[in-house]
Amino acid sequence: MRNARQPHRTQTYNATVIVTIDGVAASGKSSVASGVARALHVPYVSSGLLYRAAARAALNAGLPLTDEAALTAHLRAHPLRLDARADGNRAYQGDTDLTPHLHTDEVDDAVSAVAALPGVRAWIDDHLRSLPAPFVAEGRDMGTNVFPHATAKFYLTASPRVRAQRRVNERDADIDAIETALRERDRRDARQSQPAPDAHLIDTGPLTLQGVIDLILQRVQAAHA
Ligand SMILES: Nc1ncnc2c1ncn2[C@@H]1O[C@H](COP(=O)(O)OP(=O)(O)O)[C@@H](O)[C@H]1O
Ligand SMILES: Nc1ccn([C@@H]2O[C@H](COP(=O)(O)OP(=O)(O)O)[C@@H](O)[C@H]2O)c(=O)n1
């Protein structure tokens, strides 16, 4: 039997190929997207990092998180930029690298409010669509709204407990508090977090990280055959 990853070594992905990986909070999107992108030799694009950067920018500027006019004006005057590096995306505002300040409890709490503003979403959508394909894009609405024409679409889930357990391993916090915060963010993000009708749904709970990556690579290969 052929190794699941073998075909990708020789395959060339053309400039139209976009793979989307959406899902709920802490379902494994960035780790999986990074692994799939590495196997395909293309960059991955973390849309969530841009939303986190928008929230961080609002907090830094002291803007109310629900003031759409002020926030969109701020983004126009001080644009964000995503550097879709294969070894980990980075988000900048001007020359300032915001990346080290984006995975904090403060940003976790603020980001859904900022992401609910249509003006902010439009600004980020435009930025994402300006990035040159091929790439793997991960977030909430990559397969539904931003790249509806994607080559292959995936939607990751896992139970809140499993996701909280994974976050415990990354952040020094109580598992119950993490699970409560994840459930709350899922609730606030529900509007833009629906799976595309043509997305493959994957429950990552019973799978290893590499198992999820391999499953996606097999399906991308099939979609591209
Ligand atoms: N089967 C799995 N699928 C995806 N991620 C997993 C799996 N098992 C463990 N993880 C871990 O879960 C954590 C959360 O993944 P992450 O990529 O940050 O999720 P997201 O981008 O959805 O927030 C990471 O530390 C990742 O390595
Ligand atoms: N395409 C996207 C990606 C993220 N987001 C928002 O950005 C936040 C952070 O996204 P993320 O992907 O970094 O979050 P995690 O799932 O990694 O915790 C989410 O909670 C959403 O509010 C969004 O609205 N649309």
Automatic annotation (TrEMBL):
NCBIfam families, per the entry: cmk
One cellular component (GO) term of this entry: cytoplasm
Annotated ATP binding sites: 23-31
Entry protein name: Cytidylate kinase
Domain Cytidylate kinase, chain residue ranges per copy: 19-221
Species, as recorded: Deinococcus maricopensis (strain DSM 21211 / LMG 22137 / NRRL B-23946 / LB-34)
InterPro entries with a match to the protein in the record: Cytidylate_kin (IPR003136), Cytidylate_kinase_dom (IPR011994), P-loop_NTPase (IPR027417)
GO molecular function terms listed in the Swiss-Prot or TrEMBL record: ATP binding; CMP kinase activity; dCMP kinase activity
GO BP annotation list: pyrimidine nucleotide metabolic process
